[in-house]
């Protein structure tokens, strides 16, 4: 026996919008599996980037996607909103950053900025406070040598990027691959 019930509440969204949202979610999930990443961080141009396999040693100027280490510094960065939640171990959002130094390079850090092999990078001053006037942890002003199993990642796209100025070198083992812009809107 069937029971007739009146519908007392209608969906707040039309069925076509719900279907479109479902299809969009499915496309995003499938795209992630194919290496596509959405970047909404101002540290690099916002848009869609594609993760590509490394085919040789990293070079200065290449853009990479790397997973942060699960350290107290990155925990602080996530708590303050410098990093979001994501697919990396420790549930960190991957970093999208340019490579500024590779094995054999020297980094000179000073309050005025970052120098790589004697050449100053634009927009690379080391900030002592974030946009909410909280103290920032940062590396000591001195010379650093880049070792074989590490890389330095600094974005000069904006002056307040959270990058190697604050966390130092990144182990090469945490670099997932190269990043290629697919569709950039800024």
> SSE order, as H and E?
HEEEHEEEEEEEHEE
Q: State Rg.
A: 21 Å
Helix content: 10-25%
Instruction: Give start-end ranges of low-pLDDT stretches.
Output: 1-9
The global form is globular
CATH fold title:
Umud Fragment, subunit A
Lateral strand order in the biggest sheet: 1-2-12-3-5-10-11
CATH class category label = Mainly Beta
Distance between the termini: 61 Å
Q: Per DSSP, what share of the residues sits in E-state strands of 2 or more residues?
A: 25-35%
Whole-number tally of structural domains:
1
Helix vs. strand class: alpha+beta
Strand count, sense and barrel status of the largest sheet are: 7 strands, antiparallel
What's the name of the CATH homologous superfamily? Umud Fragment, subunit A
CATH architecture heading:
Ribbon
Overall pLDDT score: 88
Structure, described:
The protein has 186 residues and is of the alpha+beta class. The longest helix has 19 residues, at 15-33. The termini are far apart. The protein has helices spanning 15-33, 72-79, 164-167; strands at 36-39, 47-52, 63-66, 85-88, 95-101, 106-110, 113-116, 119-120, 143-145, 150-153, 170-171, 175-184.
């Amino acid at each position: 026996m069937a029971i007739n019930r009146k519908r007392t509440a209608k969906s707040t969204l039309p069925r076509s919008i719900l279907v479109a949202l479902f299809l969009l979610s499915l496309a995003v999930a499938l795209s992630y599996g194919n290496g596509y990443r959405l970047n909404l961080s101002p540290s690099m141009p916002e848009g869609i980037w594609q993760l590509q396999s490394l085919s040789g040693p990293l070079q200065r100027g290449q853009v990479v996607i790397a997973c942060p280490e699960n350290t107290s510094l990155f925990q602080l960065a996530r708590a303050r909103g410098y990093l979001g939640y994501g697919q990396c171990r420790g549930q960190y959002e991957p970093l999208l950053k340019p490579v500024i130094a590779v094995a054999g390079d020297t980094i000179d850090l000073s309050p005025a900025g970052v120098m790589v092999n004697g050449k100053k990078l634009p927009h690379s001053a080391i900030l002592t406070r974030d946009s909410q006037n909280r103290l920032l942890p940062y590396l000591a002003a001195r010379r650093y040598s880049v070792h074989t199993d590490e890389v330095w990642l600094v974005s000069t796209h904006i002056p307040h990027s959270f990058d190697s100025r604050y966390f130092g070198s990144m182990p090469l083992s945490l670099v997932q691959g190269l990043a290629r812009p697919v569709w950039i809107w800024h």
